[in-house]
Amino acid sequence: MRTAPTIMHLDMDAFFAAAEQASKPSLRGKAVVVGGLGPRGVVATASYEARVFGVHSAMPMAQARRLAPNAAYLVPRFGLYREISEQVMGLLRELSPLVEPLSLDEAFVDLEAGGSAWDAASARLAGAKLRADIRAVTGLTGSVGLAASKMLAKIGSEQAKPDGLVLIEPGTERALLGPMSVRTLPGVGPATGDHLRRGGITTVEEIAEAGEDELVRLVGKAHGHALYAMALAQDERPVVAERDSKSVSVEDTYDVDIHDRVRVRVEVQRLADRCVGRLRGTGRSGRTVVLKVRRYDFSTLTRSETLRGPTDDPAVVREAAARLLEAVDTTGGVRLLGVGVTGLADYTQEDLFAQAAAAEERAGAEKDAGSEPVGDAPAAGPAGAPAEPAERRWPAGHDVRHAEWGHGWVQGSGVGRVTVRFETPYSAPGRVRTFRTDDPQLEPADPLPLVDPAAAAEPGPATARPADRAADQAADQVSPLPASRPKSRSGGGGEATSSP
DNA sequence: TCTGGGGTCCTCATACCT
DNA sequence: TCTGAGGTATGAGGACCC
Question: What are residue A207's phi and psi, to 5 degrees?
Fold first, then answer.
């Protein structure tokens, strides 16, 4: 275990919602909920203003709407989030080559390995500067945890939220963890939490007191050992850059359960194609094809088949998925279908024997099955499908450009109308106008950068790096506590050191 | 109230081989 | 030849994470 708090965990605050607020001036300070807007959607992120109403991630969207009927409801724009994420990861890589992204909005950084920190003071300085840089470059806020291990750095950033920094001094870990709920520890979810509670264990301290054997008895071998070590604040996991993914999958939940077996087959073929598209995008191939079916009653089953060798051939994956589907009873209806590939390899070695066998099977299948079209269905949907509804063509929150009114975003659409608010990240809150969904002057547009490039380049030479200005601010902020706290939420803001 | 999408890891059962 | 032990691959399911 290292002795200095030089592992950093960065967590962007309410990332998707904050990005939308930065991009849409009229939503700043308002309740914003990002997630699936269909009848079976769930909340991906809620802004802090929406959380006041009890809205939180993974909540069914219908419930969120009841709790916060006046919030803005938007579909996620992963393209925008990815761009912002890359900017943030770029800033992290300036601190160290050892950056381990966990998702678009979270990462670990080994500051010591990058030479950017070696003790508590330098780590705190690096954290403060990073937070200032993130704000300057993206206009968003992130929370930073600093500790001697990954687990504690993550707990630190959680405590720091929103918009803060917490450094956990080595030596204080066990006293800090002791009274916390077992649910604080990574890997303890509802099920494990329940197991532990039934064993009379609700706090981290009680895990440590129970002993390793008792834990293994309660939650199994691997989990028990890991949990016991974490309760003692022992976590030697290194920060690992560049993890290879181990599987690729796509899945769709349907607004209405599918009962028609033919339609189920068509959907599985489509998912297989999409899956292979993604697989090829990563330049890899896979050996095991997995079919996932969630039935009308939410029971989920998976079926898998391992091929002779890795493939990225859409026909091979389609056929494997179709074979797997034949073994699944879908009477009663399915609400979700998914196709995935695991056992990924970097090479696309198509086993000649397997290929020949597949071709043979294909020939046989075509003779038997007759008319079923295997070719690509038109992207717009199956033949005879109704025209796309307006909500799909003009998704809530997406950017648009109007020939006359300029840049804006879709506030809502339906019954042949689309409502647009005309504003940009750098403008004042804008006006709202409504158009026909087929208005030729209206077209989809790319998101604009959240920080005005013109304004950012303004002072000094064109190459002036926001980081430099941020560094000055950071130096002011480092100690003692910052003079002012942005945002309204109390608790957790600013910078702090845990001291039991 | 009614539960997304994309992943990782672990456990258990079974089959097969030595 | 039969039986059992142990290793490895495979398949299914569940818990967890963001």
Answer: -65, -45
| DSSP secondary structure string for all residues of A415-465 | TTEEEEEE--TTSPS-EEEEEETT-TTEEE-PPPPSS-HHHHH-SSSTT--
**CA–CA distance, A198 with A419 (Å, rounded to integer):** 53
CA distances to A183, A315, A390 from A134, rounded to whole Å, are 30, 45, 36
Smallest CA–C1' separation from A300: which nucleotide?
C13
Q: Which of strand C's nucleotides are less than 7 A from any protein C-beta?
A: 9-18
What is each CA distance from A2 to A9, A113, A333, in whole angstroms? 16, 12, 54
Distance A110 CA to C15 C1' (A): 28
Residue A375 confidence class, pLDDT cut points 50, 70, 90: very low
pLDDT at A361 over 60: no
**Confidence check: pLDDT of A473 > 50:** no
Omega into A389 within 30° of 0, i.e. cis?
no
Lookup: tokens for A193 = 């939490």
Q: How many other C-beta atoms are found inside a 10 Å radius of the C-beta of residue A98?
A: 20
User: Active-site residues of A: which are they?
Assistant: 106
CB of A253 within 8 A of CB of A40? yes
Residue A239: pLDDT over 70: yes
**Beta-strand relationship, A32-35 and A72-74:** parallel
Cα separation of A194 and A84, whole Å?
38
Give nearest nucleotide to A12 (CA–C1'). Answer: C18
Longest Cα–Cα distance of chain A, Å, equals 78
- Rounded CA-CA distance A394/A385 in Å is 18
* Residue A326: pLDDT over 60: yes
Distance in angstroms: CA A226, C1' C3 = 38
pTM above 0.90, yes or no: no
Give tens-digit pLDDT for A385-443: 344 565 667 889 999 999 999 999 999 888 889 999 999 999 999 999 999 999 999 99
